[in-house]
Amino acid sequence: MLAFTVRRLGQMLPTMLGVVLLLFMLFNWVGGDPAYLLAGKMADADAIANIRRQLGVDQSYTVQLWIFVKQVATLDFGLSWATGEPVSELIATRLGPSLAVLAPLTVLETVIGVALALAVAFVRGSLTDRAVMLACTLGMSVSILVYIIVFQYGLAYRLGWFPVQGWGGWRYAVLPILIGLAVSLAPTLRLFRSFVLDEVGQDYVRTARAKGLSERRVMWVHVLRNAAIPILTHVMSNLPALFIGAFLLERFFGIPGIGREVILAVERSDFPVIKAITVYVAAATMVFNLLTDLLYQAVDPRVRLA
Amino acid sequence: MTAWQRLRADRVAMAALAVVAAFVLMVALSAIGLVAADWEDEVGVSYAPPGFVGATETAAAPAQRQQALPDNPFDPLADDVRELRAQLAQRGEADAGLGRRATLPFGADKWGHDVLKKTIKGGETSIVVGLVAALVAVSLGSLFGALSGYCGGVVDDVFNWFYSVFTAIPSVLMILAVAAVLQHKGVLTIVLILGLTGWTGPYRLIRAEYLKHRTREYVLAADAIGASHWRRMFVHIFPNVSHVALVQISILVVGFIKAEVILSFLGFGVPVGTVSWGSMLNEAQNELLLGRWWQLAAVAGAMAVLVTAFSLFTDALRDALDPRVQS
After folding, report:
1. I need a labelling partner for A92 at 20 to 30 A (CA). Which of A74, A79, A198, B262 fits?
2. Distance separating alpha carbons of residues A178 and A182, to the nearest angstrom
3. For residues B51 and B103, is the Cβ–Cβ distance under 8 A?
4. Which of residues A18 and B114 earns the better pLDDT score?
């Protein structure tokens, strides 16, 4: 297992190098000269030359790339162009609010999704099953923007059940979590149902039934343990993307999280922040993929990591 | 039974296909200027409600809202202002009473545009972006997947590295990063952003198919009669794996329409002056606070119908093309 982990960590290096190269090409080559963006509309040649020197964009591409690689290696991405804060500090302070929304959301979504998927799989093929699946398809067809606009207007603004916007205390997190659940439950349920139905036709299910086990025990113990592997993969591999994926919720409700920071950075052309967040999220994605593989063994003793 | 016959037998699929075809027809008519070409005409009063709701009182008496400001005796331009105001009043009387309608079939926006026509025009942008971007993404994915799966070896390694780099970055973040760099806004830009970031899914599936097919007997036979690599890849193998590409296109179209709506909503999408469902939702958000719900309802309804039909059709298409269910 240790050998496996070390080897996988080694495989991450070329991928990380690729991410760094891709970002470098995007921001330093395709993006053009950032000095003109920063200097504003009434810039003179001196000011532009000065900014170029500070950013290091007057150097050759090789030197610039080396600067970026050093930034990634030391996790020091310099100062934000928009606010002048150190980027690493900025990200550290945005992590808390994001987690306060995402952790409960992920747990609730997974638990409710699994419970509903098993319940629907009990009655597979029936009218209830088809009605639930149709409701899921309909629910998925409405844009997340519409959910947020209507819920924020209806539940917070008109009825006053929740604060409309802002951050401070758990009360502010409730409505974003509810909307997140409403949006994500339909696709999750559809996916988990397909995972469960893949298992229901297997031989071991027939054997368990032949032994005289109750349908409930077959579902909750035998089927669930086997369906847990794809479910686990799905949840784990979605976690890093969720940080960014919740950006609409964070923006609408004014939650000072990572996702809102990305939107702000794109609006202000704050390249260091975007680059730093992308590097962190890419690293998190790779680490979570490794963790998923390690968890497989805990869930399923048949899995041999080699 | 062929796949088409299986699809024909599925009534839900055919109904969904009819809805999708109706939308595509509308887009085509709107693109050549037969429908909704005059959406920018200010035919109604500002925020004219839908016909079935009835005109509001402010709309019925628009003249009352215009109160003349008192003249400022210290204003050096006072005489000019008075003259301009007199001109404006003349013209205002000319078009305030006649021409502008108090209600429209599905209401009007802030400028008095017909929401129904605006939704059609916005749909044209969103659907065209979704379709073209999906074509770009699947073409790229198929090309890369074919090269990777067919050639193997170093080529495969390089493309796999490429794939792992692109999948390490969540697609939302990738799209936003590209949007940050490309300052130039435009329909083509969104198509490129979505197309260039969306190829990974099709790539993985097409590559797996090519790995399976390249050692099949018909490919070896094609080799024996002297078919070139290129010909074997795209004339012999591709028709046999094209169903994967087809399903991928229809999955991506839905995803890209949703993505375009979000991008345009945030202001990273279509330029000012182009209408899309996303930019309409952006306006609708503020209108809802004033109680003007019709633009939101029109866009949300049109999008929900299209996406539901497309998703149902995609599911049926996958079932029809999946060889496992043939038995």
Report:
1. B262
2. 6
3. yes
4. A18
Determine the distance in angstroms separating the CA of B89 from the nearest CA of chain A, rounded to an integer. 38
What single letter denotes the amino acid at residue B167?
Answer: T
Is the Cβ of B288 closer than 8 Å to some Cβ of chain A?
A: yes
CB contact under 8 Å between B167 and A285, yes or no, is yes
Q: Kindly state whether A158 is in contact with chain B, defined as any CB-CB distance less than 8 angstroms.
A: no
Q: Tokens 């019709």 appear where?
A: B294
- Determine, for residues A278 and B177 on separate chains, whether the beta-carbon distance falls below 8 Å: yes
CA dihedral for A295, A299, A301, A304, sign (positive or negative): negative
CB contact under 8 A, B172 and A26: no
Residue A130 tokens read as 């088809």
Interval B25-82: pLDDT, tens: 999 988 888 877 777 777 777 777 777 776 665 544 444 445 556 666 777 777 787 7
Report pLDDT digits (tens) over A176-206: 888 888 888 898 998 898 888 888 888 998 9
Q: What is the DSSP letter of B235?
A: I
Q: In whole angstroms, what is the distance from residue B43 CA to residue B20 CA?
A: 29
Please provide the distance, in angstroms rounded to a whole number, between the alpha carbons at the two ends of chain A.
8
Q: Which residues of B touch A149 (CB under 8 A)?
A: 281, 284-285, 288, 296
Rounded to an integer, what is the distance from CA A221 to the centroid of its chain?
29
Q: In B182-276, which residue ranges form alpha helices assigned H by DSSP? A: 187-197, 200-213, 217-224, 229-231, 238-266
A46 closest CA partner among A35, A57, A56? A35
